[in-house]
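Can't paste images in this forum, so I'm doing it all in text. The chain is below; anyone willing to post the predicted structure tokens underneath?
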Amino acid sequence: MFQRQPISNPYSVANNIPQPPPLYAWIAIGALILFTVAGIAIRAASIMRPGYILVSFVVGILLYARYPALYVGFTLWMWFITPFVSRLIDYYSGSFDESRLILVSQYLVSFITIYSFKDLPKYAQQGGLPFILAVLGVIYGYLIGLIKTSPVTATRSLLDWLVPISFSFYFIVNWRNYPEYRKSIQSAFLWGVLITGVYGVIQYLIAPEWDRFWLIGTKITSFGDPEPLKIRLWSTMASPGPFAVMMMAGLLLLFNSSGPLVIPTAAFGYLSFLLALVRTLWGCWLVGLLSMITAIKPKLQMRLMVTILVMTLCVVPLTFMEPFSDAINSRLQTLTALDKDDSASVRKKIYEDGLSRALTNYLGTGIGNTFIVDKDGKLLPIVIDSGILETFFTIGWFGAILYLGAMIMLLLKVFQYTEFRFDAFMAASRAVALGCFVALPGGSAMLAFSGMLLWGFLAIVMAGHKYYQHQKQVNNFQQAYLQYYQNINPNINNLPPQ
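Text version of the structure:
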């Protein structure tokens, strides 16, 4: 609606990499869907949980090898819906899986991109240095974790740290496919915001039985009560946090979309985003929006302002309607009275207790070591509701300097690019990355799905920059080539036949 970004670019050199027909890709995806629906219908939980992991991984490998753009979209959708599939399996089988084994599938599909690490040395001087530094920091934390905890625990937690880096570096290695990745990401988030937004509103209004069953089984009180109008919605995802991060990203990307789906997507998206009641991400969305406005040309800024006005007129009335207004307004009111807010008080206490412990723990506790021993010898879980403090606490000063330094290097680099002026997707992607980065003081936005968005959108911006720079170089070469032949023969007005 704001700007329809075409797949073509200002430099008219197309990507000539041949792409195989997507028929087999959709057959594979359809087989996964059919297997999932059939498994849930016959209530075969013992087969479904490992089967879903295996089948999705096989589909991911196929797409990664043959259909890069579809692989990116498929990976995002795995994060969007796998927790929902897990809840359906639990409910219809009547057994709550405390291990939540099936959620490993989204990590494995994303971790296929580890194969791109073979090119890390090659890209050390081509924008890949931050990724090398981040990987070194994570490996250091993993080694400490192996010493201080079990290999299984350390390896499971390693996925949270390493998957975002491998997924993002995949874009750097395959920057030539930037137009296809751009289209795939834009489409995935457009439909993702619409579908998860609609389901989120339904979840809030009626509290489906499978969601109530799961909420009772987890005993997580911060998600609200398992009753209609009392749920702090998380839609198809695992918790309100990842859902809010996904919505923040999708709603920023929505400004770069056009068509009849934009208005209903915005209405359900913003309403469910507000009902998730994650105040930190509300502020991050605003920061991202301001970044996006300042990045684009004045003409596009006017289009964006008109888009914001139209969306505001469609969304704001919904927030004042019952039964949504009470939950949203009560949460908004806490922004002006943080000293009386329980959540803010708890976070303040966490910072007071965790700051000195994190910053004085020079070696780090290691990845996967999320417990401490109290004076009575009991294991107590560590709660550090800050990505920055958790980084220092987990991977120590050495790892944190490498990891956070790499992230800051990438952020500073993407703010130096100029392609935002004409590529609104790059402007929106930078806005998403900045919003996720701003969320670090309030949560672990560098891990798992949130980390994939933070690192991934930084990387897709870099990939776009590389792509446009390459097209510019090719066009300059063609112009010089034409000029050379024109100097030899003034009658030649076109390139010689290839």
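The CA atoms of residues 107 and 159 lie 7 Å apart. Confidence is low (pLDDT under 50) at residues 1-17.
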